[in-house]
Structure formats: structure tokens, C-alpha cells
């Protein structure tokens, strides 16, 4: 009976989250510098509107941007759940642990070597840049595992400190490489690194979809195993669980999602931190339920943050990464204070 109740609660939360997400997407589609009526949107979506300006606004600007925001939010929310699970640390996050900074550094190096920016790139260039960024994320993950171990086990406190150090180190290297760029590329790299999806395109959507189709099913498949990783090492050995191999598999998959997300949006922090905590409050601690809900909440966060940055400050535009950071910093301080009290 209890498992049925949890499943029913999960389905309810999931459907409500999807409904809110669809509503927010429509709101983002309808509002902006150019206001569109409900009839104009429906006629344009079904190809009945001959107004070229309306088609351009909806199909080339707003829909790609909304889809990118939803995909990135879903990816970062799920990655946050996985990282918190494999590290046994509720403060773990792709940004806090330095993985996003490492991917950003790799991408800036790619931009510097190729003398190009992320705007106007074709799908092949974006995908190759994604692979380049993935290598940077793997490098950061290797550093995390090497320097955060104590007597063969991951130390949560040391992991957080090492992550902060990696984040600062790669951030400094990124700034150094950025200063070597020409002024135009430097300006574009700075805006991109702050977490912006204003240049969203269909090519970027096509570049991130393969990563999602391959990695998300893997994470969902291993979500029950992620529950077992919360046990102590002796218990996992007794169950015959190869913990380090599973951690490595999940970490590599997470780095793949992070790299593909950073390529198209820059470093959007705190989504991977906030989404899993909200999900656990809604559906409990079992990761087979937390993981999908974290994806839905991450989607809501990024879509909402992008809509706020695009409309509230119009005609100026605030990057979505800054909007979410304004929300995320107080929440992170709250989590830090709560965790320090429980120690």
C-alpha cells in the first residue's frame, strides 16, 4: 500500500509539473518585445498565418529558445540528483563542484583555437565543441575523485572543498584564455559564460538531443542502484555492488549531459542544487522518483528564469544564469546552514 501511495504521489507531481511547464512555455511564447495574441499564435503554429514577421519570431527565436531552456533545465536537474547521490553530499552541484567551469574552460579554448564564437555555428561545429567540452568535464571529474578520497572512500567535506578549488582554478584559466581573444569574441564569450540562451537555434537543439537520448535512459535505469550508493562501503560490498564502477559510469554520463548543456547555454548554476532538494520534499528520497521530478523542476526553473530575464527587464535582457543565481545563492546559504547544524 505504501509503495502504491508513493507511486500515485509521483505520478500526480509529475503530471502537475508537466502541466505547469507547458503553461510557462506558452506564456513565454506569447510574451516579449513583440506581443502576439492567442489567435495569432495558433494560426502561426498551424501554418495559417501568412505574416512573415510572426513566423520568424515564433519559429526562429522563441520556440528554439523555449526548447533549449526546457532541455537544459531537465538535464541539469537530473545531473544534480546523480551527483548528490554518488557523492553522498546534498550540496553537490555541477557548478559548485567545478565541472561546469572545466567544461567552460575547454569550450573557450576551442573558441580561441578555432577563432569562432557560439553564435552562428553549424550543428557539426557545435557537436565537435561539445565533445571538446566533455573532455574538460572528465578532467574535472578525475581531479574530484583523486583528491577527495580518504581511506578509499569519498569524503563529502573534502569533495566540496576540492570542487571549490577546481571551480576557482578553471575559472581563472578561462579568464586568462578569454583575455587573449579579440574584443568581439571576448564579449561573446563573457555573455555566454554568464549563462545565456539568447542565441538558441535549431542546430543547438539537434546537438544536445543525442546526449539526452543516450544518457537520460541510462540514468533512469540506474536510479534504483543510486539508492544503494547511499549505504556505507561495507554494506555495498556485502551486497556485491561494484560501487566505484557504478559511480564512474554515472559520473561520465553526468559529464556528458553537463558538457552538452554548457555548450548551448554557458554555466547556469544552482539548478542542479535546487531541483533535487525540491523533488525530495515532494516525492521522498527514492531516486527512481526523485530523478524524473528533478528533471521537471529543473525545466520549470530554467524556462521561468529565461522568461523573467527576457520580459521583466525589457528592452534590456538579463541572462538566465544571473536570474537563477539571484534565486540560488540564498537557497544555497540556507542549505549550508542547515547541513552545518546537523553535523
Tell me the major beta sheet: 2 strands, antiparallel
First-last Cα distance: 34 Å
Order of helices and strands: HHHHHEEHHHHHHHHH
Note the beta-strand portion.
under 5%
Overall pLDDT: 82
For the CA atoms, what is the radius of gyration? 20 Å
Helix- and strand-based class? mainly alpha
Question: What's the count of strands?
Answer: 2
Helix share bin: over 70%
Sheet with most strands: strand arrangement: 1-2
Number of helices: 14
Shape: globular
Q: List low-confidence stretches.
A: none
Keyword list:
single chain, 343 residues, mainly alpha, two-stranded antiparallel ribbon, 14 helices, globular
Topology:
Layout: H1 2-30, H2 38-45, H3 52-87, H4 99-114, H5 123-147, E1 149-150, E2 153-154, H6 156-178, H7 183-193, H8 202-221, H9 223-228, H10 233-238, H11 243-265, H12 271-283, H13 287-311, H14 320-342
Antiparallel strand pairs: 1-2
Plain-language structure description:
The protein is an all-alpha fold. Helices cover 77% and strands 1% of the residues. It has a two-stranded antiparallel sheet. The longest helix is centred in the N-terminal third of the chain and has 36 residues, at 52-87. The protein starts with a helix and ends with a helix.
